[in-house]
Amino acid sequence: MKWTGAIALAASAVAAVALAHGGASGVVLERMKGMAAMRDTVAELAPMMQGAVPYDAFIVSEGAAVIASHAGNTMLSLFPDGSLEGVTYAKPEIWSNWQEFTTLAAEMKLYADALAEAAPNGLEPAPAPAAEMAGMAMPPAVEVARGPTVAELMGYAERAPDSPVSRGQADPGSVAPTLASLAADDLFNRISGTCSSCHAQFRTGRN
Amino acid sequence: MRGLIRLFAVLPAVAAGLGAGVLAFWPIGEAEPASFPVGDVERGAYLARASGCVSCHTNAALKGASLAGGAPLDTPFGTFVPPNITPHPVAGIGKWTIQDFARAVRQGISPKGDPYYPVFTYSFYAGFTDQDIADLWEAFRTVPPVAEAAPAHDVGFPFSFRSGLKLWRAKYLSAPVTDAYMGASSPWNRGRVLVEGAAHCAACHTGRNLLGGLKDSARFAGNANLPGGSKAPSILVADLAAAGFTVPNLAYALQSGLLPSGDSFGGSMAEVVTAGTSFLTDQDREAIATYLLDPEATGTVAAPPSAPPSATPPSATPPADPAMGGMDHSKMGMTNEN
Which residues from chain A sit within 8 angstroms of residue B274, using beta carbons? Predict the structure, then answer.
């Protein structure tokens, strides 16, 4: 009986893998594996960023390095023009809006590299000057409050940069020197915001 | 013979014409109060954000001005364009009274007395109080007016016949149940108000019938036919639990867009998080999660499959949650890519 269970479990695990990557091959399979590696790393780090499990700077740094290794040019190289053959979740908009895709891939690398370096900073909020130097200007005449302002809520002012899902609006290159001074959870939030932003634009639904 | 054909052709037309006439004069809606309380602009802005006013009526993809008209929604009934609701007197709602506004928001009726299409989720706002309306009104009046009207809806006959919506209203329109539930925690009750009302989760996560009415029998069971071909997964408690959701990590997902699997929301839900739930307070996100994961108000939340047997809510120093430890829940398809 136990054996039957084990075999069934193994079979379902194989089936799950087959489903996840079903029919994919070549460069499509390669990038799926890369995405899965990033997903698993994010799943491992997210509880630490929420304070649900003890923070471990070494794991965070290693994880960030894994994410960085799949981002940037590595990611771009796995999306050759029009590579939509077989089973893929990629949308053709990737190539019609390649500049945006490139920017997101670069942001991912930038934030992940920074997190690898900033992991020892832990979850404490970054010092205020560092946050200000991050290159994202506050809208003028808007009071800096803990919660979003009326203008931000109603959408006629850009959201303050510390929001978890607003990815870097400024030129990424100009903020690089100060990113590593940010708190780990801030950088992690930027990474997840980049994931979301990219998936929202460039990933299709699954059937 | 020719007369007979004419009769067959004309009679239904006359009957339809009479029916249409009756529908056109069928009065709908109730009078709004002559006066409203003083509005709180901050509370109103928060409610506008939580209710999706800003995300739906702003075309973020084209970097459109706030509330000046949203991205078109392709539906089986036609293409709907969320209108300009900035305070511009011609292109927006600048000439409206607060009574007009109240009638539009919580009754779904235009100042001229026409019913709005239910693509505008006013049925979820039916429970808004006079104070809620006054707060929203104050917040809307702060928005910079935009002089350009949004394009008209592109809806074919018979759906273009607005008075026909009165039949739809009679059959499907009902106010959400958001009353406080005795014995439930205050986060649960707050969650109920948000989930069933302002945040209108069911608008996407509950399936619709051929006439666009919500299927009460399939509440929160998901909808594979959202505008634009998107789909929303089930958010029934069993499916949420199977996907590894707990109150803390569901609240976190609504803030960060990250799922317990490490995947991130895509498509519509990514927008909901970016332009909606990420603006909410931590308490409100936890309230939403509490309500969704304990719809019967039992006071306990079912643990995800791989979690330890203890299903008690997390204490001040929560123990490690194995469900969040990098396990792959992605096969549950809780990604909501579109």
Answer: 165-166, 196-197, 200
Q: How far is A173 from chain B (nearest CA, A)?
A: 23
| Residue (of A99, A171, A93) closest to B266 by Cα position | A93
Cβ(B234)–Cβ(B205) below 8 Å: yes
How far is residue B219's CA from residue B213's CA, in Å, rounded to a whole number? 12
Of B252, B330, B331, the CB nearest to A50: B252
Whether A53 and B320 lie within 8 Å, measured CB to CB: yes
CB B214 within 8 A of CB B206: yes
What DSSP character marks residue B120? Answer: S
Give the closest of A41, A150, A199 to B337, CB-based.
A199
* Structure confidence by residue, pLDDT tens digits, A40-76: 999 999 999 988 899 999 999 999 999 999 999 999 9
B53, B111 contact by CB (below 8 A): no
CA distances to A80, A177, B78, B82, B149 from B117, rounded to whole Å, are 43, 51, 11, 10, 18
Min Cα separation A129/chain B (Å): 24
Phi then psi for B80, rounded to 5 degrees? Answer: -110, 140
Interface with chain B: mutation pick from A150, A167, A169, A206, highest number of B CBs within 10 Å = A150
What is the ipTM metric for this complex? 0.83
How many CB atoms are closer than 10 A to CB B109?
22
Q: How far apart are CA B127 and CA A54, in angstroms?
A: 43
Phi, psi of A118 (to 5 degrees): -90, 0
Beta bridge partners of B154: B79
Percentage with pLDDT > 90 across chain B: 55
Q: Is the pLDDT of residue A152 over 90?
A: yes
Backbone angles phi, psi at B230, to 5 degrees: -75, 170
Q: Is B268 helix (H, G, I), strand (E, B) or coil?
A: helix
b/e burial code for range B307-326 (CB count within 10 A of at least 16 → b): beeeeeeeeeeeeebbbbbb
Cβ-defined contact of B262 to A38 (cutoff 8 Å): yes
Q: Give the C-alpha separation, B107 to B98, whole Å.
A: 13
Nearest to B262 among A43, A189, A196 (CB): A43
Q: Shortest Cα distance from A10 to chain B (angstroms)?
A: 15
Nearest to A137 by CA among A166, A161, A155: A161
Name the minimum distance, in Å, from the CA of B165 to any CA of chain A: 30
Task: Judge whether A44 is closer than 8 Å to chain B, CB to CB.
Answer: yes
Token pair listed for A152: 């931000």
Q: Is the pTM of this model over 0.90?
A: no
Give the whole-angstrom CA distance, residue B176 versus residue A165. Answer: 30
H or E element: which one contains B78? strand B78-80
Contact B42 A150 (CB under 8 A): yes
B219: burial class by Cβ within 10 Å (0-12, 13-18, 19+)?
Answer: middle
Instruction: Please give the single-letter amino acid code of residue B315.
Output: S
CB atoms within 10 A of CB B61: 11
Task: Tell me if chain B has a CB within 8 Å of the CB of A57.
Answer: no
